[in-house]
Amino acid sequence: MALITKAIRGTQDVLPSESAAWQYIERTALSVARDYGFREIRTLVFEHTELFTRSVGETTDVVQKEMYTFDDKGGRSITLRPEGTAGAMRLLLEHGLHNEVLPVKVAYVTSCYRYEKPQAGRLREFHQFGVESYGAGSPLADAEVIALADATLRALSVTGVTLRLNSIGCPTCRAEYHKALTAYFEGKKDELCGTCQDRLGRNPMRILDCKSPVCSAIAADAPVITDYLCDDCVAHFEKVQAYLTAAEIPFELDPHIVRGLDYYTRTVFEFVSDALGAQAVLCGGGRYDGLCEEMGGPHLPALGFAMGLERLLMVLKAQNAALPEEPRCEVYFASMGEAAAQKCFMLAKGLREGGVTAECDTVGRGLKAQMKYADKLGALYTVVVGDNELESGTAKLKDMQTGETTEIALDDSLYTTLYNKSLDRQLAGVADLLREGLEA
Ligand code: HAM
């Protein structure tokens, strides 16, 4: 029979062979975030549509073209989250976290949904690791969040990445800039795409990140925001740069970074990778001091970033980075006969309770087929149990890497022996990692 359906275009399953790499990236990112004082939140996969139209902005590509929006059975308009910032802010306000001691710092790993044209590094369902810091208006907070993104990429040994930095000012300096942009684009209005002609009167900055080649070419010569920054925004931006320089985090100034979402103010940044081709942005973020009020809350300075996990994996694969691999099976118990099968089941259960990965036969294979299976699993040790072993209470423990065999008792002492071997292996792994870290 033909398969009922296939996965939706632009989505990717995670297979058993890939999940260790995903777990490693998520664990590492959240652990670096924790070192910086960011605690994990889990936001909702869907929200009221208005949350995104109000925060991300009605004239952005995300809202105009890319959201998965539908009416639920109660007739309410619902949207699958296209990004994490809006839902995190809703969570903060709804649970009153902004009334706690500030800054409140949160981190998340979430799936996101955007109806974009799929290509390498651009998916319709993708995953982000993100952080948000609420209540800190000082440029030190900008430097802290950027340092965290940098530290995450370094903890994952990502190389070939450049940090690009810009300031897109506050509503005061933005008003002057909008006038200059409008004047510039008015002269070329007929050449712009239909969406951008509409944006011209409503939000000319969005023309700067239109993906159409004609609009991008026109936007390349448009006035840049950095020429219109007010004194406060200039001072803030200079301090961010000074703190990054002091922390030895290299960056390049790029006046063309405006980000594709409306909520940003002042500092914006992107980490771009030379291994990603067209979708080079690995991580994007910035300050959004007006969003909390826009969503009905108090004035609350805020900032954050998100990095795409699929893009991170692409970069690590392109670098041939060694991703950690856990053995699928540390000990395989092969059995001959019903009584031995039951004994092996009990021994495997005991080892598993101590955190050792153990397997035994559950499909009724013969001994030869069981050993073949153990080999496929990459078992580090095997123990064969038959009538003789049951009678003598001992069996042979075979080290599958060296071929060496030793006698092992089929009682509680077996657990101690094998727990210790597992622990030694893990300690050796940690020592290797530490040594590699020291050498790097
Ligand atoms: P964003 O730039 O839209 O920012 O997305 C952040 C990252 O998500 C991108 O740099 C990219 O790695 C990944 N990404 C975005 N779209 C796709 C896609 N279609 N397929 C695969 N990966 C993708 C935000 O989402 C903001 N919420 C970031 C932020 C947090 N700003 C402040 N706080």
What labels would you give this structure?
single chain; 440 residues; alpha+beta; BirA Bifunctional Protein, domain 2; Rossmann fold; 2 domains; eight-stranded mixed sheet; five-stranded mixed sheet; 15 helices; 20% strand; binds histidyl-adenosine monophosphate
* Overall tally of structural domains: 2
Helicity level, as a percent range?
40-55%
Quick one: biggest sheet?
8 strands, mixed
The beta-strand count equals: 16
Which structural class matches the secondary elements? alpha+beta
- Quickly name the level 1 CATH class of the largest domain: Alpha Beta
Shape: elongated
Structure ligands:
histidyl-adenosine monophosphate
Q: In the CATH scheme, what's the topology name of the largest domain?
A: BirA Bifunctional Protein, domain 2
* CATH architecture designation of the largest domain: 2-Layer Sandwich
Mean model confidence by pLDDT: 95
Strand order of the largest sheet: 1-5-6-11-10-9-7-8
Briefly summarize what is shown.
This protein is of the alpha+beta class and 440 residues long. It has helices spanning 16-35, 49-56, 61-66, 85-94, 139-155, 171-186, 194-202, 213-220, 231-246, 291-294, 309-318, 338-353, 367-377, 387-392, 412-439; strands at 39-40, 46-48, 69-71, 77-80, 104-113, 125-134, 161-167, 252-253, 265-273, 281-287, 302-308, 331-335, 358-360, 381-385, 394-399, 405-409. It has two domains: 16-170 and 230-318, Bira Bifunctional Protein, Domain 2 (BirA Bifunctional Protein, domain 2, 2-Layer Sandwich), CATH 3.30.930; 331-439, 3-Layer(aba) Sandwich (Rossmann fold).
